[in-house]
Amino acid sequence: VSRYGRWKVEQAKKEAAALERKKRREAKLSSGTPLAPEDLDEPEESLLWALTKIFLFLLLFTAIAGRFITGSVLWGYEGKWARWRTYWPAGERVFSEAELARYDGSDPALPIYLGLDGLVFDVSASRRIYGPGGSYSHFAGVDAARAFSTGCFALHRTHDLRGLGPQELASIEHWKEFFTNSDKYFKVGRVVHPPIEEGTPVPPGCDAQGNALPQDVAKEKEKERSRGKEL
User: Fold this and answer.
1) Residue 98 has pLDDT above 50, yes or no
2) DSSP strand E in the chain: where?
3) Where is the composition biased (Basic and acidic residues) (predicted)?
4) pTM for the complete prediction?
5) Which among 187, 224, 60 has a CA at the least distance from the CA of 111?
6) What single DSSP character describes residue 9?
7) Which in 7, 28, 115, 221 has the greatest CB count within 10 A?
8) How many alpha carbons fall within 13 Å on the CB side of residue 66?
């Protein structure tokens, strides 16, 4: 007998038993006799539970297939949604500037942290880029928010945003969103900066090569930024 044939036989037995229970219930109810547990119908499987079982089966099948084909139950995906930290984030840490400086990649035993407008992100996934000698090593262990906007990596290695225009500030917001939503990097806390002392000069402007501009040119650029804010 085929599997389908056995299923039909089982269904026929269930239907016959249900009909028999129905007759017993009607007879007892008409005579006023209390119903016994065996007179009640078996609870039917809900549609939601049936769909849940199908979903779990497909999920298990997909994971097993991925393990055999790619060596990973997630089919090689290693983004942020595959990390436990995404769903159960650790408590955020508050850094001083001196504490943040320890995580510049010079110590291989420590992660690499990057500061950005007060936020601190773990960028250890790209140690080759952010570590010593890397193309973005200027950003490691410090809040260099200004450099993210101006591109002057060495000259503007500071959190001081004074004098920046709307477009430059918007660029910093863009980078904050990038690191916050990144598949590779994640936020670990924030850095607290001491107040900028009154009278501290605004960081000078820079040219395309990252060199400081002459004072008169820098002042003219500052005036242009001010006019942009007024508009």
Assistant:
1) yes
2) 93-96, 113-116, 119-122, 186-192
3) 217-231
4) 0.59
5) 187
6) H
7) 115
8) 12
